[in-house]
Amino acid sequence: QYIVYVSTCLILASVAAYLVCYVEPLAAGSGIPEIKCYLNGVDIPGVCDLRTLFSKVLGVLFSVSAGLPCGKEGPMIHSGAIVGASSAACGLHNSWMRGQQVELEMRDFVTCGACAGV
Fold first, then answer.
1. What is the membrane topology noted in the UniProt record heading this document (predicted)?
2. What is the pLDDT along the chain (118 residues), one digit of tens a residue?
3. Most buried among 6, 7, 27, 100, using CB within 10 Å?
4. What does DSSP assign to residue 44?
5. How many domains in the chain?
6. Phi-psi bin for 24: left (phi > 0), alpha (psi -120 to 50), beta?
7. Among the residues of 1-118, which ranges form H helices?
8. Distance CA 58, CA 62 (A)
9. What are phi and psi of 70, to 5 degrees?
10. Structure pTM?
11. Which residues lie closer than 8 Å to 39 by C-beta, 6 or more apart?
C-alpha cells in the first residue's frame, strides 16, 4: 500500500510540475507579485491569460492532491484576477461595455477579481 500511495503522489506532483514547466511558466508561485505589478502598471505578457488560469488551477489541484505543502490562497487570488480580466475582455463584444475598456477600468476589474479570489 505504501508503494501505491507514494506512486500516486509522485504522479500527481509530476502532472503539476509539467503544467508549470511546459504549459505555462507564469503559473508558478502564488501569482500575487505578478498581480501587484499588473495593478501598478507593469505590462507582463500573459499574466492574465486563460492559459495561465487553466495551468494554475490544475497545478494547484494536483499539487494539493499530492500532499505538497503549498497553499491555495495565493493562487486563488491570481485566478480571481484572471477571471476579472477575462470578464472585462469579454465586454469588448457588448455595446454597453465598450466605453469601459480603458486601462483604469481594466485594473478595476482585475482588482475586483483578486478580491473575489480571497
1. Multi-pass membrane protein
2. 899 999 999 999 999 999 999 998 888 888 889 998 888 888 888 888 889 999 999 999 999 999 888 888 888 998 999 988 888 777 655 555 555 556 777 888 888 888 887 7
3. 27
4. -
5. 1
6. beta
7. 2-18, 32-39, 50-65, 73-90, 103-117
8. 6
9. -125, 145
10. 0.82
11. 107, 110, 111
